[in-house]
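Support request, please re-run this one:
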Amino acid sequence: MTTELQEFPDDFASVLCIVAHPDDLEFGAASAIAKWTAAGKSVAYVLVTSGEAGIDGLTPDECGPIREAEERAGAEIVGVSSVEFLGYVDGIVEYGLPLRRDLARVIRVHEPDLIVTGNREAFWPGRRGFNMADHRAVGLAVLDAARDAGNRWIFPELLEEGHEPWSGVRRVALAASPFATHAVDITGWLPKGIASLEAHARYMAGLGDAWPPADMFLTQMAETDGPRLGVEHAVAFELVEM
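Re-run finished. Output below.
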């Protein structure tokens, strides 16, 4: 079988996942995260927003706590107990220095080898629709913050807070990128990823009947990426060396 994707390297011990919204990791990456935590790797989640604008029938004040609780439940299913919300306003996250600074701070705090984030491009793989502004802003800011975190002369106020530079980030992996380069074999781990997405029950219900069930959606994705790696099920990432 001719493969298009390389096997995701396994030479990392700690992972920091930084995404815009609750559910962003569960739409694919969570199956890989379940495999990593089971192998003893340390994984933490940082959510830039609480996803409070994500359910049309609920006000942001009602929605935010529900989505935070669903995110913590989904994270627990794949072995992640560290879940932090930065409190940016859902839907209007802007790329810029404040976001870079806040992300550099959490990177210095967690000291990861690998960072996982979402698609920073304008379109999804196969040009399946236009990507959301929050995703694009956060994905780009993560890449810049991974470098900012290692430079003591960028955001020197972080030093005053007691956060020493961290230059140990070796790679940033972007999930759902149209420019995927690598993939994680999640054969046998897909049920964990499905259960993690199903934990977002109120959010998924709010998407309506036009959206496929979690098991159908994630299985289709995994079956599409699997042959590109030469396995049954896989989740693809664009891997950027830092």
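The radius of gyration is 17 Å. Strands lie at 6-7, 14-19, 42-49, 82-88, 114-117, 171-175, 182-185, 234-241.
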